[in-house]
């Protein structure tokens, strides 16, 4: 393994609010922070927002800085990616930012009923050959519904047209409540629509920049999956 990666893994163990549980610590339903993220990690009663497949965690950190009235948890399977966001959060002492290294397949083991207010899916893998592996597919939404509040919102930001369109199809076929959709976020007059959303959309992830530079348009939709 590259030395750089080993150093990042070692750094991760020293950062505050970074959790890398072994499977045995959560698979039997006894993850110690389940239902207790506010009390034990954030030490406040503020809403909790997840970024699933967060990569370097640009949304987790960016929203955490923009809006300290909410708590943000970035989730990804790859520790060497999380490292970037975790390092920034640690250096800037962002007390409302945490990271969880795990597979999203197991996400319901980490949060209790009604513990989460919002979920961001940022440039998720489009999984063209495995639609049920898409983080906006019904099997994942069913996992999220175990801990998402009744009025909870899922946000999807992607450069991938088929992931965007398949998510809109899912919203329609399962009769989720579509709150908003934009086929090109850069053409939207966010200032007029919502100055806060302009700020939110100004955060650019690593993949957004990578594919944006190749001409891919960024799409966004938000929905409430409870019916
Ligand atoms: C295309 S990258 C996007 C990363 C970041 N959100 C961005 O926009 O730069 C997809 C990320 O999702 C993570 N990922 C994919 N499937 C996952 C799963 N089942 N559980 C956890 N992480 C996953 C990958 O490790 C990767 O970091």
Describe this entry's structure for a reader.
The radius of gyration is 17 Å and the shape is globular. The mean pLDDT is 96. The chain has an eight-stranded mixed sheet, with helices on both faces. It has a domain at 103-224: Vaccinia Virus protein VP39 (Rossmann fold), CATH 3.40.50. The chain is α/β, with parallel strands linked by helices. α3 links the parallel β2 (48-52) and β3 (71-76). The chain has helices spanning 3-14, 37-42, 58-66, 79-91, 138-144, 161-173, 190-193, 195-201, 206-212; strands spanning 18-19, 48-52, 71-76, 97-101, 116-122, 148-158, 177-182, 219-224. The longest helix has 13 residues, at 79-91. α1 crosses α4 (79-91). It starts with a helix and ends with a strand. It binds S-adenosylmethionine. The site of S-adenosylmethionine has 18 residues, from α9.
In short:
By secondary structure, this protein is of the alpha/beta class.
Structural class, from secondary structure content?
Answer: alpha/beta
Number of helices: 9
The CATH homologous superfamily of the domain at 103-224 corresponds to: Vaccinia Virus protein VP39
The average pLDDT is 96
Largest sheet: 8 strands, mixed
As laid out across the biggest beta sheet, the strand order is: 1-4-3-2-5-6-8-7
Shape: globular
Give me the strand/helix succession.
HEHEHEHEEHEHEHHHE
**Unreliable spans:** none
Report the CATH topology name of the domain at 103-224: Rossmann fold
The CATH architecture of the domain at 103-224 comes to 3-Layer(aba) Sandwich
Amount of beta strand: 15-25%
Tell me the span between the first and last alpha carbons: 46 Å
Please give the radius of gyration in angstroms.
17 Å
Q: Total number of β-strand segments?
A: 8
Can you identify the CATH class of the domain at 103-224?
Alpha Beta
Write out the distinct hetero groups bound to the structure.
S-adenosylmethionine
Percent helix range: 25-40%
């Amino acid at each position: 393994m590259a030395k750089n990666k080993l150093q990042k893994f070692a750094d991760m163990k020293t950062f505050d609010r970074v959790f890398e549980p072994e499977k045995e610590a959560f698979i039997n339903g006894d993850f110690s922070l389940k239902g207790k993220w506010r009390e034990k990690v954030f030490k406040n009663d503020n809403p909790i927002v997840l970024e699933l497949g967060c990569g370097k965690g640009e949304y987790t950190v960016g929203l955490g800085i923009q809006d300290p009235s909410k708590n943000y948890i970035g989730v990804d399977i790859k520790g060497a990616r999380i490292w970037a966001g975790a390092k920034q959060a640690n250096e800037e002492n962002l007390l409302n930012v945490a990271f969880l290294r795990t597979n999203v397949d197991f996400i319901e083991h980490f949060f209790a009923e009604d513990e989460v207010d919002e979920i961001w899916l940022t440039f998720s893998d489009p999984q063209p050959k495995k639609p049920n592996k898409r983080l906006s597919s019904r099997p994942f939404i069913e996992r999220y519904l175990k801990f998402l509040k009744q009025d909870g919102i899922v946000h999807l930001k992607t450069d991938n047209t088929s992931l965007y369109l398949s998510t809109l199809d899912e919203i329609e076929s399962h009769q989720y409540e579509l709150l908003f959709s934009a086929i090109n976020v850069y053409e939207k007059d966010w200032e007029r629509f919502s100055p806060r959303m302009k700020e939110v959309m100004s955060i650019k992830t690593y993949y957004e920049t990578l594919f944006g530079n190749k001409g891919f348009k960024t799409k966004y939709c938000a929905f409430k999956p409870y019916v």
